[in-house]
Design brief:
There is one protein chain. By secondary structure, this protein is mainly alpha-helical. The protein has three helices and no strands. Helix 1 runs antiparallel to helix 2, helix 1 runs parallel beside helix 3 and helix 2 packs antiparallel against helix 3. It is elongated. The N and C termini lie far apart (74 Å). The model has no long low-confidence stretch (mean pLDDT 87).
Length: 120
């Protein structure tokens, strides 16, 4: 068994675990934030579900791209470095996506509340 294959077998479960746990947490707790901005329950729930699906798709795609880009690993030291680096990238990607989503929803709310058209 090559070091690359061992790396894949370690990296994929770590990435899947992080993706699923963080995704469930965002989905469970994020609905409260979305509902505070979008009072319509159906729209808030739909947006929350869409964000979860998008989140999973981006992370699955990234995980496979990360595996394709791995160089040949020839020893255990390189194996640990590669797994650590790729895991750090996925965590940073999740953080970036989270803050972009929060900022986007907040900006949308600000725009919606300050630019309403009154027809009287």
């Amino acid at each position: 068994m090559t070091f690359n294959l061992i790396g894949y077998l370690i990296y994929l479960p770590i990435t899947a675990f992080i993706t699923i746990v963080v995704g469930k947490s965002f989905h469970k707790h994020g609905i409260h934030y979305i509902k505070s901005i979008i009072p319509e329950k159906k729209i808030a729930t739909s947006l929350n579900n869409l964000l979860l699906v998008g989140y999973y798709l981006v992370n699955i795609g990234y995980a496979f791209i990360a595996i394709i880009k791995w160089e040949h690993i020839s020893n255990s030291h390189q194996l640990i470095e590669e797994i650590s680096l790729r895991t750090a990238y996925i965590i940073l990607l999740l953080t970036l996506m989270h803050y972009i989503n929060i900022a986007s929803i907040a900006l949308w709310s600000y725009y919606k509340n300050n630019h309403q058209i009154n027809i009287n």
